Amino acid sequence: MTATTDTTKGTTDDQMKTDHSRATTDAAHTHGGGTVPESSRADRATSFELADFAVPTGREEDWRFSPVDRLQGFFAGALDGASPDVTVEAADGVLVERVGREDSRLGQVGAPGDRAAAAAWTSFTEALVVTVPRGHAAGAPTMVTVSGTGAQGVAAQHVLVRAEESSEAIVVLDHRGSASLAQTVEIDVEANARLTLVSVQDWEDGALHLSSHRSRLGQDANLKHIVVTLGGDVVRVTPDASLGAPGGNVEMLGLYFTDAGQHQEHRLFVDHVAPNCVSRVTYKGALQGQDAHSVWIGDVLIRAAAEGTDTYELNRNLVLTEGARADSVPNLEIETGEIEGAGHASATGRFDDEQLFYLRSRGVPEAEARRLVVRGFFAELIAQIGVPVVSERLMKAIEAELDRTMEHATA
Length: 411
Prior knowledge:
Blueprint: E1 5-6, E2 11-12, H1 13-21, E3 27-31, E4 85-89, E5 95-100, H2 115-123, E6 126-132, E7 142-163, E8 168-189, E9 194-201, E10 208-217, E11 222-229, E12 234-243, E13 249-258, E14 263-272, E15 278-287, E16 293-302, E17 310-319, E18 325-334, E19 341-350, H3 353-361, H4 366-385, H5 388-410
Parallel strand pairs: 6-7, 7-8, 8-9, 8-10, 9-11, 10-12, 11-13, 12-14, 13-15, 14-16, 15-17, 16-18, 17-19
Antiparallel strand pairs: 1-2, 3-19, 4-7, 5-6
Helix pairs in contact: 3-4, 4-5
């Protein structure tokens, strides 16, 4: 764990991590400068070589919240499980290719950052490449459906999404069925391009999914990166965004609904390399049922050259029943004081009995009152997503989850 001085508040990031991971009320921090820690997020290991990563034990910082005993198959040298079926409905003008691993475009966005990601890179044989040509504005989303056919063995999958210069598009990755899937998603957003990338994890019970998303932004590029996690036994998504050219803007949105026995983990890293870039992170989750466990880690690094940075990250968790646990850890590391602004906030709280009482006192039945509170919790975030086909599906999924909430409440 790193420690960086918060010159505005007079506390260290280690102290803030403790506060946030135990938070039951909102805690926000605004930073005006910082010092370089002895162990920097910039120094994390990345490599295409599997041997450069030890098999995780659960004691490592990157894996301390993860159920590594359930993930041993993802750390092997060769992943040879049955690959999910992949179908694509491409928008007009968007090019879709299936290429071999020798294609020179693959692996250019960044190297794997953990052993599971390295195993995924080592093991895939065919990659899906989605390209939005230069200057093209796609009129409809491109839908990529990944359908698992079984969770026996671990499969490796590689996807590259390229938004060429001055293009605009929406790409949706929709995961369903059952699978054990180690996945890499490379996202390359060139200068002046605008890309919305949505990844929906709506797996059946029994599915295991570890997905490494690595993105880079060119000058004045815009990326809206959206993660929606609803199903699967263990889902761990690790989105990285590198702002390596001036004027880049990344918005990272996430929504998750964690049920009994599920582990859903979202571990983000926003790397501000170049000056005058903006990042915004907003993730919200609800949890219900015994041993429901969500993990959100938000790492932001502002390097010495990244003057004029403007960044903020937010995580909210709503615990609906007893027996559920949410871990939330925002980390902010600043190497220059010449920034526009930087801050983070995190909160984990139980269902608001006062809101419930207020609604019931006005004649709203308890079941409907609970629905209204949860809908309100997610409403603003769903509006931010701005992709109708995704928003409509989310509302239906939340209604289905709320049916389960009613079952937990009356059990």
